[in-house]
Each structure stands twice: as C-alpha cells, then as structure tokens.
C-alpha cells in the first residue's frame, strides 16, 4: 500500500475529524470523494443514515466536534469510514482513549457493522489490548519491538469465536489468551535486558 486511496478507510485513535467542520460535513467530505456521481441530497442522506446506524441522533449532523463527547466523535469517525464502503478498513487504536463502557459499545458496533457487511471488509485493527483483539479478530498477529517483526500469530476459529459474555468461559480461548500474553511479555523482557 502506498499513499491515500478511496479503497481504504481509516479510523484513528484521535478521531480524525476536522474541528471547523460539523460531524455531517466531515462525513460528506469523504463521501463526495468516494461517490462523485451522487447528488448532494443523496450524500447527505447517506451521512445521516450512517450517524443513525452508529447510534447517534440526526441532530449530531450539524454539531461541531468540540460539542461531542469522545465516544460520539469516535462514532462519527466510524460512520465516516464505513459510509465510504471501502474494501479495506484500517483502525489504529480507535478505542484506546475511551472509557470501558463506551469502548465495549463501540467494539460491539464494529462487530455489528462488519457482520452486516456484504462483501466483508478486510479490517486491520491495531490494539495493545489482548482481550479486545480476541473479541474482534479472526486472526491475531503480534508484532515485536524494534525492529518490528511478527513474533506470534494465531487464528480464532469462526465456530469458536468468543462473545463478550463467553470470552472467559472457553478453555481453548483462555489458553490462547495466555499464550498471547506470554509472547508479548517475553518480547518486552528481551528488550528490557
């Protein structure tokens, strides 16, 4: 991958919204680039529909980012990325700065949006949270410290995918979690010494 592309959506950890534009204008900016043949009204309706899809009210469309909570800003960023309908979505620690309840809601939202997607997007999700990775991923790649390299890789079986409620009940998942944490700790210890 080189440079920006309309084939990739990005959700950053710091929301990535232009502060001088309303939530709706931020989403429209991406939509106008992605769908140049659509009318202004069609694009606006797509933006409003995505805001509703991510659990925000239509009134948020006219609000500036400074008027929104952190969770609302991140929902807007997710709405922007999903509204473009890119085949590849890059999510860089998108929930790192959020409280636990908002984080869980947005994790569930991403799972819901991905499940509804047809065809499925490829999502690259960067996180330092092992439990978040196990909940959201079907494949986990652990990168080591400098120089960055793959130190461990595992797959989450589709038929054994954990839910928030069952994540800590499945012994196979608990063993996988322990292995992931051990690999990360080993890599950290190797670089401290």
Explain the overall architecture.
This protein has helices at 23-34, 40-53, 70-83, 100-116, 130-136, 171-192; strands at residues 8-11, 88-92, 122-126, 139-143, 150-155. It is α/β, with parallel strands linked by helices and 193 residues long. The chain has a domain at 140-193. It has a 3-stranded parallel beta sheet, covered by helices on one side. The chain has a two-stranded antiparallel ribbon with strand order 4-5. Helix 1 crosses helix 2 (40-53), helix 1 (23-34) packs parallel to helix 3 and helix 3 (70-83) runs parallel beside helix 4 (100-116). The longest helix is centred in the last third of the chain and has 22 residues, at 171-192. The protein is elongated, with a radius of gyration of 18 Å. The model has no long low-confidence stretch (mean pLDDT 88).
Strand order of the largest sheet: 1-2-3
Tell how many strands the DSSP assignment holds: 5
Cα radius of gyration in angstroms: 18 Å
* Quaternary class: single chain
**DSSP strand content:** 5-15%
Give the averaged pLDDT, no decimals: 88
SSE-based structural type: alpha/beta
Number of helices: 6
> How does the overall form come out from the CA principal axes?
elongated
Q: Ranges with pLDDT <50 over ≥5 residues?
A: none
The string of secondary-structure elements, in order, is EHHHEHEHEEH
Distance N to C terminus? 35 Å
The helix content, as a percent range, equals 40-55%
**What's the main sheet like?**
3 strands, parallel
């Amino acid at each position: 991958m080189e440079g920006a592309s309309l084939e990739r959506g990005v959700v950053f950890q710091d929301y990535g919204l232009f502060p001088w534009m309303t939530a709706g204008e931020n989403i429209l900016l991406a939509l106008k680039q992605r769908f140049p043949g659509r009318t202004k009204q069609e694009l606006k309706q797509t933006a409003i529909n995505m805001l509703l899809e991510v659990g925000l009210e239509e009134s948020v469309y006219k609000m500036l980012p400074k008027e929104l909570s952190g969770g609302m800003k991140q929902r807007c960023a997710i709405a922007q990325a999903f509204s473009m309908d890119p085949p590849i979505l890059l999510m860089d620690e998108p929930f790192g700065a959020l409280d636990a309840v908002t984080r869980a809601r947005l994790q569930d939202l991403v799972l819901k949006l991905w499940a509804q997607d047809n065809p499925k997007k490829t999502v690259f999700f960067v996180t330092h949270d092992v439990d978040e990775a196990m909940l959201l991923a079907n494949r986990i790649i652990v990168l080591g410290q400098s120089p960055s390299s793959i130190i461990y890789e595992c797959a989450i079986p589709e038929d054994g995918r954990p839910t928030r409620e069952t994540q800590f009940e499945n012994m196979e998942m608990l063993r996988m979690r322990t292995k992931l944490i051990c690999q990360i700790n080993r890599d950290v210890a190797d670089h401290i010494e």
